[in-house]
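[Automated response] Your request has been received and processed.

Submitted sequence:
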Amino acid sequence: MVKRLIPSILGLRLRPRGELLVSLLAIGLAVAVPAAALVWTTLRSWDRERRDGAQELQALHRFRLEEAVRTLDAELAARAQRAGRRDPVRPTEAGLVFRELATEGMAGSRPEGPPEEGVPDGLLVLAADGVPLYPAPAIGRLQPPDADRRGEALVAAFHQGLITESMADAYLDLADQLMEQHLEGSRSPSGRLYLPGIQWAALQRLSPEDPRFGATLEALTRQVMRYEAPLMPASQRLFLARELRKWGGRPGLPTESAEALGLAVVQALRGPPSQELRVAMTVHPSGDGPGEEVWLLPAPGGGVIWLHRRERLHRELEARINRGLESLGYRVRLGPQSPATLTPAGSAMASSGELRAPLGASLPGWELRLDTSTADASLAGAARRQAALQVASAVSAVILGAVLAFLAIRRFLQRVRLAEVRHDFLTTVSHELRTPMTSIRMLIDSLAADPDPSPERTRSYLGVVSRETLRLGRLVDDYLTFARLERGRMNYDFQPTSPETVVEAAVRSVEPRFAAPGCDFRTEMAEGLPLIRADVPSLTTALLNLLENAYKYTGADKRILLTVTRAAGGVCFTVTDNGRGFDPRHRSRIFEKFHRVDDAGGAVTGAGLGLHIARSIVEAHGGRVEVETTPGEGSRFTIHLPILPESADEPLETP
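Generated structure:
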């Protein structure tokens, strides 16, 4: 029924074997076609993703590069906005604005530790027209005011009186005159204040033990620290601050580093600095020392230009951007713009795992370089793992489909084989039952039709009827036993039993048949056999099946031997015959139900249940059945059964 289902759906009319082949082919195609389609789709998808992956990866890298440029622009804008938006600074306020901004976390204002990130190194305070008000080399005008003329006159008169007074007294007297006439803001033609210079000259000529030395030193210190009007030029302030440190360990100027840098920038400028563009220039803050590059970052609205040393600014910008990109496998660095490797404005080209983008107005002349090697390796690894997972999933699906197909085909074949075996079994059973019944009926009909049967003939016919009846009973018993075994309803009544009891029951059953001419049947029993735990009727059935099997598969000259011996921990029932034996390759299958060894002559009948029933009964007793065979010489079947523990060391008395 099962094997005809698929051919009937296809509308085919085939022989049974053809129907089976068509069914198996249909099942195979039902599994193979979807599996092949799945593998093909997976490989195509993998190939497409691999082709598109390079473009998507480049797009991702460019997005990360653009993100890094935006982060840099935002960081520079935040640095430029430190001063806020200020109104144009008046010249009289330039010093105060400088001191206010320079002391708010300016790099170098905290000598006890490294500068904070984002803090500028210096600044320039500009006028409305962009001219630096502070720091500046000099402060003054081409047409000096009246205070400068009067101060210059006092200095000139001072030089005339040097020949009559001591140098220290002369300088101190000149300083007193400038203060009495309120000329503290008078300047030389170079823009420097007269009063601090005169006080410094007096200190050079005074002894530290002189009472006037300390007062003059304090007055000069206040002048150097003063950023209100009159504003001291940065060059003069820096010079005096360095000199003050030589006298009495005076504290350093908090804004000294910022003023030195700003002054160096102003001296390097050729005109007012741009208040709109960021520019870089090389300066020499320490005079004759090595030059260093400084970035000028104008604050929004003008009035202030922040100064950043290039090396420190670039290092901090790189660290700021990398904090957000390193976790993604990227790393950036700043470098001079390379026209040979850059495409026109705003675009970037890959060069050995690196993308570059010019920074334009952000940092003119420089470019941002994005190292993508780590990200490429990570993404490539992820792509390989994803591809491997897809292929593994497809292969697993194919394997699973193949396994399911194998199980389905196996189940299908088992059902087909079972159906065939059942058919053969029913046919065999019908034939096996019909043969003795037919013989019995024919003999009875012959006796009934004979009006005067002879006693000898009647006795002979009745003997045959008796044997056929026994045979019929044995067949019925086997079928009923098999049915109970299959349903798991075989009931056993295990009792301590002597092996002789089982052997005697089996011999009584086969003796009439085995007493026929040409059959040499003998039994050999060892002495002192122990008790076994057995259900006598069922164990007798198992032994009878082995004897019947030996009888059927021997020729006309039958030699059958039943021996019972004691083995290690058990008792062995062995049936040996001189039959034709069988191929040892069938040893593992001869105990299967419905299995029969091929009979070339076709003389042996049966349903193939005897050995299966025997093994099932023996295993229920906790034993096992072993077989040895030699083709053409015979076979030996042995039943091994365990003995009762209490009788293991006591020989059994035979009644």
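Summary generated for your ticket: Confidence is low (pLDDT under 50) at residues 341-347, 650-655. The longest helix spans residues 373-449.
If you did not submit this request, please reply to this message.
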